[in-house]
Design brief:
CATH class of the largest domain in chain B: Alpha Beta
Distance between the termini of chain A: 67 Å
CATH superfamily of the largest domain in chain B: P-loop containing nucleotide triphosphate hydrolases
Strand content of chain B: 25-35%
Number of strands of chain B: 14
Number of domains of chain B: 2
Order of helices and strands of chain A: HHHHHHHHHHHHHHHHHHHHHH
Structural class of chain A: mainly alpha
Largest sheet of chain B: 6 strands, mixed
Number of helices of chain A: 22
Number of helices of chain B: 10
CATH topology of the largest domain in chain B: Rossmann fold
Strand order of the largest sheet of chain B: 6-7-8-3-9-10
Oligomer: heterodimer
Strand content of chain A: under 5%
CATH architecture of the largest domain in chain B: 3-Layer(aba) Sandwich
Helix content of chain B: 25-40%
Structural class of chain B: alpha/beta
Shape of chain A: flat
Chain lengths: 477, 312
């Protein structure tokens, strides 16, 4: 353990010292660290003036933690370059080979780079935050509590680990610094979206929920670190010098991989699709596990948290139940408002969105969107429970009939997306990056076209033409 | 020592960078790995240093298997890479100290080795300067010092004297020769055939990933260029027609005052030939072996290889 740490520290320390000797890195960093807090402070002053004139103390109270969060995020974004060029930069400068020739282990090299990649942005971020907080002391505004500051500092730490672990994966995979910088958007933008979500939570004023965000982002970061570490191989850094774009070859690769050795559609279903499905065992297990957890979590959250915001008296519950039942009594009319093909299109589009988000984020964001979709089921069942319906009956009558097909399709497509995402960050010495991407897409397409679309079609028909009747019968309407 | 059998490396599932390379280099020997750019020398060296995993075959370096014990292999090997790969914002002594730490040398050992190597390569005065300010030759010397910092049992040197001035090249060659005499196993990849001839005991010529020819230098000369040639120079014009040549001697070139012979067994034949010449009244000024270089061996081998390739 001690030896392992020594090696990690050796790699990290050299990089750390090295970047602080380069004024081109250090000067912009100092300027940015110093500049943002002053800009934010000026905005805070204006906000105070505005609130004093027109009122809105609550907004002002929530504005400061929001600014602290944003001030912490900016330095993370602009120091990401350190992590992005961790491997690919050394490769371009030709300094990577002596390091790889050394007895340092793969994990020591990887974690050393990760450490310095995290420490530099964090120092920049905390310095910037500290400066803003110091400036804030002069303002006539409530200073954020130690508790909320702790939450924001933890969130900033989680953001740093998330961004840097993604950037390091990009750095290993990229063939040039230019390519790595282009891919940086795939790190900054998703984290910016996450930040927006967290901002909503801050303005909402329920700090406790931020703990969930911290846990979620930390888990995601841990997953990325694990993923990067598991697939980091020094050979990969030297195995290929350049990836060239050959569209014709990629098109061949796509069609060859999609059809496989099948001689016809029936043969493809019998011989080829089972091979792809067999490879989905582990991702499917993961997706089912987190999907079930998400359903229970959202169910639990709904029945615990909703009453905190909306008082549901027995009279109100009765009123809502009656309203729901009156709506349900005319459910068979749904086919005229929402035809089965439209529902099919909607579900197919949602699965495609999960895939696109997933492929752009090595599976992570796609999984997030999947959790939102699956979580809705738990939310609906929780809402049913709150107004006095049996959640089990609601599930078996209102969800299960078409859900058997629809949820199966969602789970399979998401598992294929997770596999595709993981495949992307798995070193493939025998394939170029473009080929790996194509293969990942093809494997997902096989599942999507071969099984998901037919299942969604069946589900849409059942949901429009059978589920309403089953639901009505179950509730005696 | 280095042992390798059928060492092969395939990239992208369709390109064999190295195929079926077998080597045996004992302690105290130097093997020169020769070949064109892209022939597979660097890939071979990277496999020997457990940096690339062989697709096929095996290798043991410094007593360790490159596939099963890659870390032990790398601990016992010093590598001079094709690019010097220096960290340009470190000073020379910091750089050597850093790699000393990487190879887990004690503080005293690190200091002692760095002082010795900096002094040996004439870099002591530049030790406190950033390596980015070094000349190309100085960078190469520091990279060489890095490869030697942990006093490794095996050395893999890719173009060890490229970019060095003649004095520095001489120093590097002397150090390599000294290491050889202290029972180190050394592989040199080089395009400098004079240097290879001066240093190497064994030579392997690699072409398109395959070893075309390997062995001791004298054996290779004989194998590729044929039997040794000797030249006799006479004080005056000499008529060779009347000369009664001993068995195993053939005249391959002549002019009025010179004769060139190809001789199968010089040890036994040369005394008889000299006797035959002098007994026939030849006034011999000199009789010497015609020098044959590694360059001739290399060029002839490559010529044949290319002819075969074109024919195929």
């Amino acid at each position: 353990m001690r030896n392992n740490w020594d090696g990690i520290w050796l790699v990290a320390r050299r990089e750390f010292v090295d970047q602080f000797r380069d004024w081109r890195i250090i000067a912009p960093m100092i300027i940015m660290i110093g500049l943002f807090p002053f800009i934010a402070d000026a905005n805070t002053r204006e906000a105070i003036n505005f609130m004093n004139r027109y009122g809105g103390d609550l907004i002002l109270e929530r504005l400061v933690p929001f600014v602290v969060l944003v001030i912490g995020f900016f330095p993370l974004a602009f120091t990401l370059g350190v992590a992005l060029e961790a491997f690919v930069g050394e490769k371009e400068r030709g300094t990577i080979e002596p390091l790889l020739n050394s007895p340092l282990t793969d994990s020591q090299i990887y974690l050393g780079k990760l450490l310095v990649g995290i420490v530099t942005p964090l120092i920049a971020s905390y310095l910037s935050t500290g400066l803003y907080l110091a400036l804030l002391l002069r303002r006539a505004v409530a200073f954020p509590s130690a508790y909320i500051l702790l939450l924001i500092l933890l969130l900033t730490f989680a953001h740093a680990v998330l961004m840097v672990s993604s950037a390091i994966i990009i750095s290993v995979q990229a063939t040039s610094i230019r390519a790595a910088n282009l891919l940086a958007s795939f790190v900054v933008m998703p984290v910016a979206f996450i930040l927006q979500g967290e901002t909503t939570l801050i303005f909402w004023g329920d700090e406790e929920v931020l703990w969930y965000a911290i846990v979620a982002v930390t888990l995601l970061s841990g997953l990325l670190v694990r993923l990067g570490l598991a697939h980091f191989r020094r050979e990969y850094l030297l195995g290929r010098e350049i990836d060239t774009l050959n569209l014709k070859r990629l098109a061949h690769l796509f069609s060859d991989r999609f059809t496989g050795k099948a001689k016809g559609v029936f043969n493809w279903y019998r011989e080829e699709l089972p091979l792809t499905l067999a490879q989905l065992r582990t991702p499917l297990l993961i997706v089912i596990t987190i999907g079930v957890v998400a359903v229970f979590a959202s169910y639990g959250w709904t029945i615990v948290q909703i009453p905190a915001y909306i008082t549901i008296t027995p009279e109100r519950a009765e009123e809502l139940r009656a309203y729901a039942l009156s709506n349900a009594s005319s459910l068979e009319m749904i086919s005229s408002q929402l035809p089965a093909p439209v529902l099919f299109y909607h579900n197919a589009r949602a699965i495609l969105a999960i895939f696109l988000l997933g492929i752009a984020s090595f599976g992570v964001l796609g999984l997030g969107l999947f959790l939102v979709n699956v979580g809705l089921v738990g939310g609906v069942l929780g809402a049913a429970k709150l107004i006095g319906f049996s959640p089990l009956l609601t599930f078996f009558a209102g969800v299960a009939p078409h859900g058997v097909f629809e949820l199966t399709a969602f789970f399979l497509a998401t598992a294929a997306m997770v596999k595709a995402g993981a495949q992307l960050v798995t070193p493939q010495t025998e394939r170029s990056m473009g080929e790996t991407l194509i293969v990942s897409i093809v494997d997902w397409c096989r599942v999507f076209v071969g099984i998901v679309l037919p299942l969604l079609a069946v589900a849409a028909v059942i949901e429009i033409y059978a589920t309403p009747y089953i639901l009505k019968a179950a509730f005696g309407l | 020592m280095i042992e390798a059998y059928d060492l092969s490396k395939e990239f992208n599932g369709n390109f064999w960078a190295v195929e079926g390379v077998s080597l045996n280099v004992q302690a105290g020997q130097i093997l020169a790995l020769l070949g064109q750019n892209g022939a597979g020398k660097t890939t071979t060296v990277r496999m020997l240093n457990a940096l690339l995993t062989p697709t096929r075959g095996w290798a043991r370096v410094a007593g360790y298997d490159v596939i099963k014990n890659p870390q032990e292999v790398r601990s016992n090997v010093g590598v001079l890479t094709e690019q010097h790969g220096l960290y340009v914002r470190m000073t020379g002594d910091e750089y050597l100290d850093y790699f000393g730490r990487v190879y887990k040398l004690s503080a005293e050992k690190r200091k002692a080795r760095a002082v010795y190597l900096l002094d040996y390569f004439g870099l002591t005065e530049a030790a406190k300067r950033r390596t980015g300010e070094y000349s190309k030759g100085m960078k190469q010397k520091l990279a060489m010092a890095r490869a030697l910092i942990h006093d490794p049992a095996v050395l893999l040197l890719d173009e060890p004297t490229s970019a060095m001035d003649p004095e520095a090249s001489r120093l590097a060659r002397d150090e390599i020769a000294r290491l050889k005499s202290s029972q180190r196993t050394i592989v040199i990849c080089t395009h400098n055939l004079v240097e290879a001839e001066a240093l190497a005991d064994h030579v392997a010529i690699i072409y398109r990933g395959k070893i075309l020819l390997s062995g001791a230098l004298d054996e290779l000369k004989r194998q590729v260029l044929g039997a040794a040639e000797y030249e006799a120079e006479f004080a005056e014009s000499y008529n060779a027609e009347a000369l009664d040549l001993p068995a195993g001697v053939e005249i391959v070139a002549r002019n009025a005052t010179r004769l060139r012979f190809r001789i199968e067994s010089p040890q036994t034949t040369n005394p008889n030939l000299v006797d035959a010449l002098t007994s026939r009244g030849a006034r011999v000024i000199s009789f010497y072996e015609v020098p044959r270089t590694l360059e001739q061996v290399y060029l002839r081998t490559m010529e044949r290889a290319q002819e075969t390739t074109y024919a195929e």
